Amino acid sequence: MHTQIVARYRATWSAAIALTLGLAASAPAQRLVLPAGSVILVRTTTPLQSAAAQSGQTFETTVEQSVGVDETTIIPEGSRIRGQITVARPATRQQSGVIEVVFDRIVLADGTSIPITGKLTSTDSTERRQIERDPNARVVLVGERGGIGAAIAGAGTSRTPNNIFAALGTLLSEGRDVNVPAGTPLAVQIEQPVTLRGRGRFRGGDANTIYTAPERIRDAQTALAQRKYYNGPANGRLDDATRRALFEFQADAGFSATGNLDGRTARALGVNVAGGPTGGLSGNTLSADAATTVRRDAQSLVSRLRAELGTSGMSRLSSSRAYTQGDLEAWFALSAFADNASLYEQIVRNGDNPNAAVHAGRALVGAARHVDSALQSARVSSQIQSAWASLRGQLSPLDTQR
What we know:
Elements: H1 2-26, E1 31-34, E2 39-44, E3 48-49, E4 58-62, E5 67-69, E6 72-75, E7 80-89, E8 98-107, E9 113-121, H2 125-131, E10 139-143, E11 150-154, H3 161-168, E12 179-180, E13 185-190, E14 194-197, E15 209-210, H4 214-226, H5 240-253, H6 263-268, H7 288-309, H8 325-350, H9 354-376, H10 382-394
Parallel strand pairs: 5-15
Antiparallel strand pairs: 1-14, 2-4, 2-13, 3-12, 4-7, 5-6, 7-8, 8-9, 8-10, 9-13, 10-11
């Protein structure tokens, strides 16, 4: 009887594990979209100085922290974003120096180069509000009016440099050059959507997680409307009105004001960010830390059940105890669950295929249901039952049928 039980559990869960690992190995890398309007924070690697800058000159900035979309890394730490100077004028006695820049390329840490259309923006609330008075305004650096050695300002929509200077008006009155040192933080706003390959589970900071899934945007819109920041429809679209509302909320809350729906902002608005969207497959995944907790708790529970059953370290059963099939069903089911919890943890931590992680979560829930069934006929203590109920609750984000 014991051999038959072991064989049945091994066959069932080996098939589930093989399916999950096969999905992770065979599925192509996920393609994710960084939406237009997204803001990426970078640092300059060389100075920007209007006294020496030339139109057409290029410069580089560095992405210091990985950028993620919906729990998946798309721009790893150490990637570079290339800028190009399109207008440069040194200061005179009467007028400040001006530099206009655009951003045209992301070079990822592995050397992959992706063309982009990006412009300068600001996370300073005063500067950003001035820029966004005209959504089509050209954005420039103006000499010596800001804490970074320049102010960031909107300068009208004209393509003629003289008209740009005229639009700046009194902002030019300082008569000083732009002098942005190397290592200065800047904000790059993406003007056209960019499709990038997913590069594993996101492990960056809250400020660099960009949530784009419609259900999360919809929840954020509802929360922003309740706080009087947004008066549009809760349609799940990350449009300009939603980004402006997010920016104003972030500025008032003292957050980095990017207009992105980042992790810190989502939590402050009460948006549920547990688990996550997975590029077309509906379902959640646990965070890496939550998966580790499930695995540890499952292994601990197996040890407690073994102690109750009087088994030795070599799985030797007590010769003085009369075991029922229910006892052994519970032992084998819980042991199988602990093994699957360990595999699930590895998939979540190491995999770069979120869809496979969803499948793995479903397989883990299937293993948990076998434990549910086995414990109903097992002679185990109330402490074991209570501990399992607690562990089972940790799986609630994965188990939509409970």
